[in-house]
Structures are given as structure tokens and as C-alpha cells.
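It is worth pausing here to work through a concrete case rather than discussing structure prediction in the abstract. The textbook approach is simple: state the sequence, then state the predicted structure, then interpret. We follow exactly that order.
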Amino acid sequence: MTLFPEPTCIWDLKAELGEGLVWMEREAALYGVDILGRTVFRFHPESGARTVWDAPARPTFLVPDADGHLLCGCADGLRTFNGATGVFGTLTPVESFLPENRLNDACADRQGRLWFGSMHDPETEASGSLYRLDSRQGAEPVQMDTGYVVSNGPAIDPLRNRLYHNDSVRQTVFLFDLAEGGTLSNKRPFARIETGYPDGMTVDRDGFLWVALYAGGGVQRFAPDGTPDRFVRLPASNITKIVFGGPDYRTAFVSSARKSLSAEALAAQPLAGGLFRFEVEVPGLPPCVFRA
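Step two, the predicted structure:
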């Protein structure tokens, strides 16, 4: 496996649980969240400008919407977020019948559907699920798969009509066939992680899957057949999310977390919780937009 040049820390956020990265092309800016810090943040690579907003609940993911703003997943449901004003919209509850659950990660597909997962917040019960929200088929999310303690991802390969989804506790990346109409079939293991836990992930233009490894100290790239291809080591153990951005989508942005690290571990990795970047040869895909 080939190692990329050493990544650079672009913001020493010291996030307790950095997550939810998304590139907003029209702003040329990167957004993300600190789940445990209950904040949403924005970083402009060109100017270096940084903005942080307090969230009304623990924010977990961000997905661009058709209005040029963001859909913000929160511990208790879905809200819109306007980066120009810093204003959050009203709450649409999700899984209110499971008070120990929270939302965790998401992406949109080219048809404008939202794919998102939930998890058991204490991380002991397999009560988490994978949902699809398609405004053309109603206002309620549809449960597509279940039985997760911690669901993560998801990520879509539009060239091969695939959806990837992580069962983090089981250290397994699963693969589904994704039909044009939004149905999933043929769930099977794609890759098993031996060091760390699969967290946020994304697909590049060639259909290779990049997976952040929580407690794994880096990002693993997999070929479409599941073969480990490249590993990028980062100066933090808890790597939580990777996305592509920049003018040509050849910049990888990576978030990390300080959660559960001892004082000794934090002393050994002072950039834990930081935001990192490195360059890649094969560009990523622009994020798809959720159409409400």
C-alpha cells in the first residue's frame, strides 16, 4: 500500500467529536460539526476564515440542500441550517420512540434522496437503522436496514449503483445494490477492518472508497473489489470523516476526535480533534444535494 505525503493540520479545533464534513462549492468553504461540543463550524481554505455557531442540539451531519443551505442532522432529528445567517430551522423529529438513539451520519444521492443512519447513543444496543428520505414519496423517512449499534457512512458509488454503509461496532463495511428507484438489495460484507472502526467515508471519481478509521489512526482507501489500496496515516488516532473539496476536488479534508482519549494519549497526539487536509491524484465527487 502506498502512503500519501504527510497531511497538514489546517485548524487545531480540539473537537471532542469532529464529524459531518461537507464541501459547499458555491462558498468554496468546508463545513463540519463537533457533536459533543454542540457546534457547527465553517472553514474557508483560501482566506483562512473560521466561523463557529452553537447548535440547538448535538449536530451530527450536514448535507447540502436545494436552497443552497444545509440540512443538519441532530441528535433528536432534522433541522435546516443557513450559513449566511447562522440560523437553524424548526425540528423534524426522527425516532422519537427510541429515546436512547440519535442520528449519526448521512449523504444524498443524485436523485436528491437523503440516506442517513441512527445509532444507540450508549453504544450497547443494536437499535440503530439506515433510513431513506425521498420527498417525492412522502415526508416520512423509510427504514431500509436495521440492527446497528453504531451506523456510519453512508456513501454512494453512482457509477456502479452501490451504497456502502458501516456497522462500526462489528468493524465491517457493508455493500448494497442501489436501484434507480431507491431500493436496496443484496447486502454483503465489502471490507472488514482489523485496526480501528469504520467511520465516515466517501467515494472518489474512480469508485474507490475512502474510509476514516476511528481508533485506527488514518484513512484507508479500498478498490471497488474490496482490496485495500492505500493508507493515509494522520497525527491522531480517532479519525472520523473524510470528504473531498477544493476547486478540483483533489483536496481531502479529514476530521478527528478527542473523545475517550486519556491525558497520556492527548499528550502524545496534541492535534487530536483537529481538521486536516492532504492532496490526492484522483479527485472526489461533488456532494449531492437533498431536495426536500
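Step three, interpretation. Residues 58 and 163 are 26 Å apart (CA to CA). The longest helix spans residues 263-268.
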